């Protein structure tokens, strides 16, 4: 299987000054949870909104096609419970900057292939909180680059609170996540693997 590759020169951790500037520009003042991705049942964004209900001290930024059915349901849930810590930003074209400004990536997916969003966030030096499904466990090492937890919103909330309460641990997770991508999931490594497979296929032709 060819692994997904990331442009590590585009998705990279911010230096302190850049990060402060980005956070000011985006209006991030508290521990900020980034939840990007296509709004779909398998992406399970509703669990993230429910987790936000249990963590009013954290801010949640959702990015994606919020005009979809699941996106509309998520917004209705927010309105029903008057969640002041949830924002829906729709589709964005500045994801590298958002990764560098946020504090953690939350991906409560229940069905995934090799998640490019997860790898982009890891390359950007973000710690990951995600579900313990096999595809995510292939990328995220629990207790080293992030936290793997069941899909229960309360457990997701507990994991996020733990990282918010221990910023040094979160920073270490992010550094180790970046290193993991540099060692295994760069775009150059992906291209080399594709070339190797193509060369092998051609060499087997009669």
Entry summary:
By secondary structure, the chain is of the alpha/beta class. It contains 9 helices and 6 strands.
**What kind of sheet is the major sheet?**
6 strands, parallel
CATH topology: Rossmann fold
Alpha-carbon Rg, integer = 18 Å
Q: In order across it, which strands form the biggest sheet? A: 3-2-1-4-5-6
CATH architecture call: 3-Layer(aba) Sandwich
Record field, number of beta strands: 6
Class derived from helix and strand content = alpha/beta
List low-confidence stretches: none
Distance between the termini: 24 Å
Summed over residues and divided by their number, the pLDDT gives a mean of 93
Note the run of SSEs as H and E.
Answer: HEHEHEHEHEHEHHH
Percentage of residues in DSSP E strands: 5-15%
Which CATH C-level class is it? Alpha Beta
Outline type: globular
Tell me the name of the CATH homologous superfamily. Answer: Glycogen Phosphorylase B
Number of continuous helical runs: 9
Task: Work out the count of structural domains.
Answer: 1
Q: Helical residue percent?
A: 40-55%
Describe this structure in words.
The protein has 206 residues and is of the alpha/beta class. It has a single domain, classed as 3-Layer(aba) Sandwich (Rossmann fold), CATH 3.40.50.2000. Helix content is 49%, strand content 12%. The protein contains nine helices and six strands. It has helices spanning 16-26, 45-53, 69-81, 95-101, 116-123, 134-137, 153-165, 167-184, 187-203, and strands at residues 32-36, 59-63, 86-88, 104-107, 128-131, 146-149. Strands 3-2-1-4-5-6 form a six-stranded parallel beta sheet, with helices on both faces. α5 links the parallel β4 (104-107) and β5. α2 runs parallel beside α3 (69-81) and α2 (45-53) crosses α7. The longest helix is centred in the C-terminal third of the chain and has 18 residues, at 167-184. The protein is globular, with a radius of gyration of 18 Å. The model has no long low-confidence stretch (mean pLDDT 93).
């Amino acid at each position: 299987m060819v692994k997904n590759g990331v442009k590590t020169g585009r998705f990279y951790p911010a230096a302190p000054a850049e990060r402060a500037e980005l956070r000011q520009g985006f209006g991030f003042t508290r521990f900020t949870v980034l939840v990007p991705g296509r709004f779909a049942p398998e992406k399970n964004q509703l669990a993230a909104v429910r987790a936000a209900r249990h963590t009013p001290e954290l801010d949640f930024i959702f990015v994606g096609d919020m005009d979809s059915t699941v996106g509309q349901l998520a917004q209705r849930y927010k309105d029903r419970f008057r969640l002041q810590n949830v924002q829906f930003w729709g589709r964005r074209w500045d994801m590298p900057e958002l990764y560098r400004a946020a504090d953690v990536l939350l991906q409560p997916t229940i069905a995934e292939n090799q998640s490019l969003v997860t790898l982009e966030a890891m390359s950007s030096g973000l710690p990951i909180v995600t579900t313990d499904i096999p595809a995510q466990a292939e990328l995220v090492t629990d207790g080293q680059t992030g936290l793997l937890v069941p899909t229960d919103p309360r457990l997701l909330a507990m994991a996020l609170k733990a990282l918010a309460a221990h910023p040094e641990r979160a920073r270490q997770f992010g550094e180790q996540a970046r290193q993991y991508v540099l060692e295994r999931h760069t775009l150059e490594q992906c291209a080399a693997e594709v070339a190797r497979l193509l060369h092998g296929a051609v060499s087997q032709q009669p």
